[in-house]
Specification:
Helices cover 38% and strands 21% of the residues. By secondary structure, the chain is of the alpha/beta class. Strand 3, helix 3 and strand 4 form a beta-alpha-beta unit. The structure holds 5'-deoxyadenosine and iron/sulfur cluster. The site of 5'-deoxyadenosine (5AD) has 12 residues, from strand 13.
Length: 468
């Protein structure tokens, strides 16, 4: 089926869903409420905005993350096992709510659902779940909801892969002034520890004209900052009918009038081109931040991880970026406890952290993901040893980040105000171009504005500031 006619089909389902919502409203005396709870990365956050868009269009009432709602959807993550465990834990609690509200419906979607073992477990141990779907068919959400309300028993609809990208379905943005934009889906890299290529499928890029049109519409609707999303944005566009590079796409996005800031996530070091550095260097809108996952500083472990760069190549790349764009913030992801990793390997990782001087680094204990090549490796690392090494790395990350971030103390820089500070109503929280958070006195009228602040006091990864 063509993607256009699929859009028409789904819009018809949204209309049918409206009738279902009206019937439920008449029965209950109020519109049915919903909660969408998102685990994991920015991709999932964006998917949730699409799911919420459809629910609101159909007339459901947004109840935030209140799990005592008439419809609860968990958008799951499976990149590490603790994300899976959280979902199972919360499902137990949901069962209690459902017993008190027999009309309640429970749905699960996202990366975890792409694993056959998870589906088996849900069928066996969580029979109160009503609907399960995966990452490839979220555009069918309206249709699946109609089926769920019109039938009894668990509905499972999981696709192994897809080449379909359905444009123009409704979306409800979390923030009025900023938005994520998918530029590509899936991943072809098969890093040996990573489950993403198995649950998100093969790499597919959106057409540049669709991306530009979506951003133009967003800007007309008040968006000033966009985050271009892909598992590996540096390989964007390679498989399109008319191939285009990520650097070229950025140049096109830069031209959009009214757009103030451009971010992107995530860059694989092996594919980061000189062209991209050049475009970033001369851009007025691309933010001074690059997230460049290192994973390990040991060339031996990197080879085992199938990362396709060495310690030396990574350091050379980071140095080149720092030389060309001196005010850039570099952040990274690091895995500790990969099979066969020794204290000497971790020393290499620490050496890279010291040399590159990250502004922030996300450190993770290796999690064995069934079906990945690393899960079958025989030399799995002892958990206590991994935790020890983790603590060692974290300490260096914190010290070097504080040193690096504090270099900005006293400077006046622009922040985009995002929200009221969750812990102190007299403060607002905004983000610098380099992604560092700043808290400063202000009120909700400032949200969405780009303002100048003086960075007064560095608190490790963030600042306290004041407006100037
Ligand atoms: N165990 C631990 N961390 C992982 N990541 C991906 N897979 C695993 C795993 N099996 C981390 C990587 C990646 C980030 C999103 O999650 O560091 O960059
Ligand atoms: Fe996973 Fe590697 Fe793809 Fe990132 S690039 S999603 S770590 S396989």
């Amino acid at each position: 089926m063509s993607e256009k006619s699929e859009l028409i089909r789904q819009n018809e389902y949204i209309e049918r869903l409206k009738q279902i919502v009206t019937d439920l409203s008449n029965k209950k005396g109020h519109a049915p409420t919903f909660a969408v709870i998102t685990f994991g990365c920015q991709m999932n956050a964006r998917d949730s905005e699409k799911l919420i868009g459809i629910l609101e269009k159909a007339g459901f009432m947004n109840n935030g993350e209140n799990e005592k709602s008439d419809f609860v959807l968990y958008n799951t993550c499976t990149v590490r096992d603790n994300a899976n465990q959280k979902v199972y834990g919360r499902l137990g609690v949901l069962n209690g709510h459902k017993k008190k509200n027999p009309d309640m419906k429970i749905a699960l979607c996202g990366c975890m659902m792409q694993e056959p073992s998870v589906i088996e477990k849900i069928r066996k141990s969580y029979p109160f779940v009503d609907l399960v779907f995966g990452t490839h068919n979220i555009f069918k959400f309206a249709e699946l909801l109609v089926r769920m309300y019109e039938s009894k028993g668990l509905i499972v609809d999981i696709w192994k892969d897809t080449d379909q990208i359905v444009e123009d379905l409704p979306v409800k943005r979390k923030y009025p002034f900023k938005s994520g934009i998918n530029i590509m889906f899936g991943c072809n890299n098969f890093c040996s520890y990573c489950i993403v290529p198995y649950v998100r499928g093969r790499e597919r890029s959106r057409e540049p004209k669709d991306i530009i049109r979506e951003i133009e519409t967003l800007v007309a609707d008040g968006v000033v900052e966009v985050m271009l999303l892909g598992q590996n944005v540096n390989s964007y566009g390679k498989n399109l009918e008319n191939p285009i590079s990520f650097a070229e796409l950025l140049k096109e996005v830069e031209k959009i009038e009214g757009l103030r800031r451009i971010r992107f996530m995530t860059s694989h070091p092996k594919d980061l081109s000189d062209d991209l550095i050049e475009v970033m260097k001369h851009s007025k809108k691309i933010c001074r931040h690059l997230h460049l996952p290192l994973q390990s500083g040991s060339s031996r472990i990197l080879a085992q991880m199938n990362r396709r760069y060495t310690k030396e190549q990574y350091i050379a790349l980071a140095k080149k970026i720092r030389e060309e764009i001196p005010d850039i913030a570099l952040t990274t992801d690091i895995i500790i406890g990969f099979p066969g990793e020794t204290a000497e390997d971790v020393d290499e990782t620490i050496d890279v952290i010291r040399q590159v001087q990250y502004d922030n680094a996300f450190t993770f204990i290796y999690s064995k993901r069934t079906g990945t090549p690393a899960a079958a490796m025989e030399n799995q690392v002892d958990e206590a040893f991994a935790h020890e090494q983790f603590d060692r790395v974290l300490k260096v990350v914190q010290d070097t980040a504080r040193e690096r971030v504090s270099l900005l103390e006293g400077r006046i820089m622009e922040v985009l105000v995002e929200e009221l500070n969750p812990h102190d109503d007299d403060l607002v929280t905004g983000r610098l171009s380099n992604n560092i958070l700043v808290h400063f006195p202000g009120d909700s009228t400032l949200i969405g504005q780009i303002l100048k602040v003086r960075l007064k006091e560095c608190r490790g990864f963030y600042y306290y500031g004041e407006r100037v």
